[in-house]
């Protein structure tokens, strides 16, 4: 199919790794003009967007919007779109994201569930120093995932993949979604939606997974009241976005052992040019011994990157050929 454009599309991208060609990193089949430029705090310079047709990135603000005179699409090589300011996007611009991170995130979720349940890190650390405190003859027995209840808040790609793995552990899976399922309910999942389903997940679950996107209605979605519904021996697992869970409420619950623990991969503060190594929260989660902390890497695998690159590249080809893009975010696109 011939291009609908009289010239190659101009595509703004961050620098690719040394020794890798742009065409290998972004496997576009069409003829495009790559504008490879440094990104500062996840954003290119406004000047680089002046004549761009496509911008590949996760952030978009008013300054970028004012500079974008020819922009036709913002392609997010990630799932989250909470750093795209819809009011800054010029009229007619399509915005599409890319998922493909559900498999590694689900693996991380089940790994930290096991680690929390077995006090794995404390056991390894103390035993390495010669301390036998976690020997069952002194510590007592540990729990197991088998037969327990895994609760999932949000039933998108991540939630569905985690449900599949939790089922493989012979766990009961209960889910709270935002709306009725469009497809038949899976036989191995108890699905509900709305406030009653949310309360059920929080009250009954031994593990509560946060897997909903960060949008205005989910910011601070899990606060003191919601966390207070959880069992004292339950764990909260958040690989979604930090700000979905109220920062102070979560810290207080963990510090006072109102819940047994948490695994947190997404945070409240991230490195920026002014502070390259900030603490991830204004509250000292790192002082607590019932928290597993990781720096937002649960989905960052080679497979995720490659699959996302293929989706982004395919969307560029679709744009060139006048075909509909996939994964268009209708709620923030300005068509």
Question: Can you tag this structure with a few keywords?
Answer:
335 residues, alpha/beta, Rossmann fold, 5-stranded parallel sheet, 10 helices
Secondary structure layout plus pairing:
Blueprint: E1 9-13, H1 22-25, E2 32-36, E3 54-56, H2 62-67, E4 73-75, E5 94-96, H3 102-117, H4 120-128, H5 136-139, E6 149-153, H6 157-168, E7 172-177, E8 190-193, H7 195-204, E9 207-210, H8 224-228, E10 235-238, H9 247-255, E11 261-264, E12 291-293, H10 302-320
Parallel strand pairs: 1-2, 1-3, 3-4, 4-5, 6-7, 6-9, 7-8, 9-10, 10-11, 11-12
Helix pairs in contact: 3-6
Please characterize this protein's 3D structure.
The chain starts with 8 loop residues before the first strand and ends in a 15-residue tail after the last helix. It is 28% helix and 15% strand. A seven-stranded parallel β-sheet has the order 8-7-6-9-10-11-12, with helices on both faces. It is elongated and about 75 Å long. It has 335 residues and is of the alpha/beta class. The mean pLDDT is 95. Helix 3 packs across helix 6 (157-168). It is built from ten helices and twelve strands. It has two domains: 9-100 and 302-320, Rossmann fold, CATH 3.40.50.720; 102-293, NAD(P)-binding Rossmann-like Domain (Rossmann fold, 3-Layer(aba) Sandwich), CATH 3.40.50.720.
**Care to count the β-strands?**
12
Number of domains: 2
| Main beta-sheet annotation | 7 strands, parallel
Mean pLDDT across all residues, rounded?
A: 95
Share of β-strand residues: 5-15%
Secondary-structure class: alpha/beta
CATH superfamily of the largest domain: NAD(P)-binding Rossmann-like Domain
Please report the number of helical segments: 10
Helix content: 25-40%
Ranges where pLDDT stays below 50 over 5 or more residues in a row are none
Order of strands across the widest beta sheet?
A: 8-7-6-9-10-11-12
Would you list the SSEs in sequence order as H and E? EHEEHEEHHHEHEEHEHEHEEH
By CATH reckoning, the class of the largest domain would read: Alpha Beta
The backbone outline, from C-alpha atoms, is elongated
Radius of gyration: 22 Å
């Amino acid at each position: 199919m011939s291009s609908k454009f009289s010239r190659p599309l101009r595509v703004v991208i961050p620098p690719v790794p040394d020794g890798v060609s742009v065409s290998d990193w972004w496997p576009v089949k069409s003829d495009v003009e790559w504008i490879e430029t440094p990104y500062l705090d996840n954003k290119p310079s406004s000047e680089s967007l002046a004549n761009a047709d496509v911008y590949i990135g996760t952030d978009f603000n008013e300054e970028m919007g004012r500079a974008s005179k020819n922009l036709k699409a913002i392609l997010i090589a990630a799932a989250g779109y909470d750093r795209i300011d819809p009011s800054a996007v010029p009229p007619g611009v399509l915005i599409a994201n890319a998922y493909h991170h559900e498999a590694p995130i689900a693996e991380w979720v089940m790994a930290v569930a096991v680690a929390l349940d077995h006090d794995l890190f404390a056991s390894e650390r103390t035993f390495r120093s010669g301390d036998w405190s976690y020997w069952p003859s002194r510590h007592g027995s540990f729990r197991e995932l088998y037969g327990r209840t895994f609760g999932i808040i949000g039933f998108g790609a991540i939630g569905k993949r985690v449900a599949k793995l939790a089922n493989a552990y012979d766990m009961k899976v209960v889910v709270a979604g935002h709306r009725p399922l469009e497809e038949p309910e899976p036989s191995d999942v108890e699905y509900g939606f709305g406030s009653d389903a949310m309360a059920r997940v929080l009250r009954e679950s031994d593990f509560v997974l946060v897997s909903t996107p960060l949008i205005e209605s989910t910011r601070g979605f899990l606060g003191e009241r919601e966390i207070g519904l959880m069992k004292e021996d339950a764990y909260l697992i958040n690989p979604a976005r930090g700000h979905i869970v109220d920062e102070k409420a979560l810290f207080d619950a963990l510090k006072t052992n109102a819940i047994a623990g948490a695994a947190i991969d997404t945070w409240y503060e991230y490195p920026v040019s002014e502070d390259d190594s900030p603490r991830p929260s204004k509250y000292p989660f790192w002082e607590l011994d019932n928290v597993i902390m990781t720096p937002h890497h649960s989905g960052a695998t080679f497979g995720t990157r490659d699959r996302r690159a293929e989706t982004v590249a395919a969307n560029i080809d679709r744009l060139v050929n006048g075909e509909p893009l996939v994964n268009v975010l209708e709620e923030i696109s300005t068509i």
